[in-house]
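Title: Prediction job returns without error message
Component: structure pipeline
Severity: low
Priority: P3
Assignee: unassigned

Description:
Job completed but the reporter wants confirmation the result is attached to the right record. Sequence as submitted:
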Amino acid sequence: MRRFIGRIAGFACLATLMLAGNADAGPIMSFSQFGDGLVTGTTVGGTTTLTTSSSLGGASSKSVTISTIGTTQQSLAALETFTLVRSSSVASIDSVGQIVQGGYTGTVNFTNPAGGAVLLTVTFTSPVILSGVPGSGSATLTGNMSFTAPSTSPIVLLGALGGPGVTSAVGSGSFSFSQVTSPPGSATNGLTLTGSSVNNFQAALDSGTFSSAVVPEPSSVVMAGISVVAGLGCFGIRRLKAPRA
């Protein structure tokens, strides 16, 4: 009987370890430029600040189209607004010839153009990196980010932050800038440096993607715990079977 129970415990241990796993990283949202709008980088006193604006009206937001929420295709108009997106870190050229400046912090809000309701707030949770190859006409802003949205946002209603009703998540994101000129409006394509500072620049187009991090599934955590208990039970039964001295 003890031998039978020991075998069952062993099989339980193996099965639960096989079932335990991680949830995949999930897409949250992607967007692209719509109509006019600019992302501008301005360096003053060693601090580079990125701002959004309408190239026609001079507003502090720019128009974009949300093309996916989770895995669902969309065509949702939104306004993108950079708030206190800046870095005072030293910029340099890395081993592959990119201009790189880390240390970016700040938030980016996506709102409904009709009424201003927040759709998604993106917060840089660790220093985010601006990079671009001189002469390429493009640059990226990438790193770890957190994401929050109100319960009425389609981001939440479609479960893109981890399931219907979930209003926050952590993960990573990337903003891609194209038609980059430095100084703004010049014929020089891409980021440029003066000493260890990024020169003023302007991007006529931007797009981006956001994803949640890989996290353990609740069921996996429970099953992993059961596997430990089963394993201990197996070893315990074998110990009970040891001959007495």
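Comment from assignee: result matches the submitted record. The first helix runs from residue 2 to 19.
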